[in-house]
Design brief:
Elements lengths: L1 H11 L6 E10 L5 E11 L6 E11 L7 E6 L1 H8 L3
Antiparallel strand pairs: 1-2, 2-3, 3-4
Organism: Roseovarius litoreus
InterPro entries: NTF2-like_dom_sf
Protein name: Phenazine biosynthesis protein A/B
Length: 86
């Protein structure tokens, strides 16, 4: 079932040529309807030319195999630094 969960999440977060969103770890919890994903997003900001490389922790609650709740945790300072002028 964990493999199917990974495939479903990849359909929700597809990679595009200009933005890479890579799932690095898929973690089970004691709650069979909850999954914790460690991921990394990477792209180049067109406005500044800077690399936007940010780790994420995503928590999904999926009763009946469908995403009901998603919570994302990340450092917003990475985005600020990417889009700031030097």
């Amino acid at each position: 079932m964990q493999g199917e969960g990974a495939r479903r999440l990849q359909r929700v977060y597809p990679c595009t040529p200009d933005h890479l969103f890579e799932m690095q770890a898929l973690n089970r919890t004691l709650d069979p309807d909850m999954m914790i994903v460690e991921a990394r997003g990477c792209s180049k900001a067109a406005a500044t030319g800077k690399l936007h490389d940010k780790p994420y922790v995503l928590v999904f609650y999926m009763p009946d195999g469908k995403i009901a709740v998603e919570r994302g945790y990340f450092n917003p300072m990475v985005t600020q630094q990417t889009f700031e002028d030097d």
